[in-house]
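Practice set, problem 2.
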Amino acid sequence: MNRRRYFRGSLRSHESSSTSDVDPREKIKDCLRKFVAFMCTQVGVGALVVCYTLIGAVGFSRIEAAFNDTTIERVDEIRSNYTSQLWHVARDNNVFNKTAFYLDTNEKLRSFQNEMVIIIKKGYDGRDARQMWTFPAALMFSLSIITMIGYGNLVPRTSWGKFATVVYAVIGIPLYVLYFLNMGEILAGCFKWVYTWLYECSTRKREKLHRRIVVPTTACLWVIGAYVLTGAIMFAEWEKWTYLDSAYFCVTSLCKLGLGDFVPGTASENGNESKLVINFIYILVGLGLVAMCFNLMREEVRVKVEEFREDFRQCLEDTRVKMWECCRRYKNQDC
């Protein structure tokens, strides 16, 4: 007994000493392997996309907020210049010479309008770089890059910002594609389980036997329609848009068209940056629902193709049997 206890004690001490003598670099490598394995899971990919957009928002907001934009000073100078010119027109042409006053005034206003149109086409909207590149706006910009929506209402103006956009898109787009595929599988599995449970509760036991349950396309369309309707009501109340404009924005965003004529949080002067954050969540979840519907519709198409193949094969078999019977009857009649 004493020898056994001594042997066990020595064995435990040897194991503890062997574990304590592990190289710290091996521990770091093991932790990195576990971290990479977790990031390759569905939850890890979703967390990685969110973290990646947060990092992009911080980076773009700091890079572009430091841009020295002289457009506002230029606009103030143009306004002061044309105000002075209009004052001189009013001074030189008295009320008795209305024709000359109207001609000179229209000429000055037309020149002012042309200069302002050129500046507005370059992206001027009355705000400086710090007011434009807030953290929620940069967050929405980062999401529009990796999802390939590209609203176009906010663009980088610095050279470093443009270079960072290219690198960010090259890394972020494959990451979003991975998120799209994984999130589609997760949501499709959950929705199919709920649909199967509801279907089994609403049907008889005889109908359940020998039947493969497939989520129909109409159910997917109902889900997307309800999500678009929710977004349309939400943005119509917040942004004071019409319901048609709100639904138009939701559909173009979820379809990744990104026309940029309607973007939440940009029409108000106070900012309302929280709307951009909610829009970020709405778009990210909505794209996951689109991926879910894509997976479910693909499964239904696959089942329909298999059924069509089986029916076509059965049709060929029935045709062959009928032709064989016809040939046999024809031979019997000849005999």
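Problem 2, part (b): a different protein.
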Amino acid sequence: MENTASPVSEAFLNNDEIEWQPLSLTLVEYPKGDLLGKFFAFMSLAPFGIGAGFVTLILFRRDLHTIAFFFGTLVNEVLNIILKHLICEARPLSRGHLYNEYGMPSSHAQFVWFFSIYVLYFFAIRLHHINNNSIISALWRIIIVGSCLILSLIVSIGRVYLHYHTTAQVIVGGIIGVIFATIWFFVVHRILTPLFPQLVTLKLCEMLMIRDTTLIPNVLWFEYTTTRQEARARGRKMAVLKPTQ
């Protein structure tokens, strides 16, 4: 009987001939026994948590502003890849076959600073007219923006501490992230936002239930009060329709 085994199957029979390539997307190394290094390694996964949050918000909120923000992060990543292959600067520590890409600029630093500065602009410019007299509202803004900025600092320091990037690579990545966040927020706020009312009327947007919340000053409060009123109305209706015992 003719042997029809594929080259890949034959290679698996002889493990010595296989060069195993790890998925380095989430693989972060740190010095064994170094608790601070372990902390920085965990914090290096922050961009993936932010990305998962974006996907969740888009699926459940389907708001054009969130989609535009997320699209900006994707463009920011593409820009980082292009710059890395144009500059071609190596990372400070060679990790063999784990990382084949270049280190200038740092993609982590560029991502987190893009995200944090965009959030800062969003609260400072787009939401500046909402509940200005509310101490609680102002406190929440400070906490959210401050947390984002602190996260960016921790991730940036961690990339240098773990020798994934030089200080210059992290600084350049952060600067590019800040600049591109400024440009992208201007594009969304001044160019795309006026087009959102027309976009949501398209059949595709209606099918996907994509919405525009630009004119709603406080989306969270609006959804809370609307849901509560609807639940009460349905409760009263069910009580009226319920047959008397």
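Answer key, part (b): The chain has ten helices and no strands. The radius of gyration is 24 Å.
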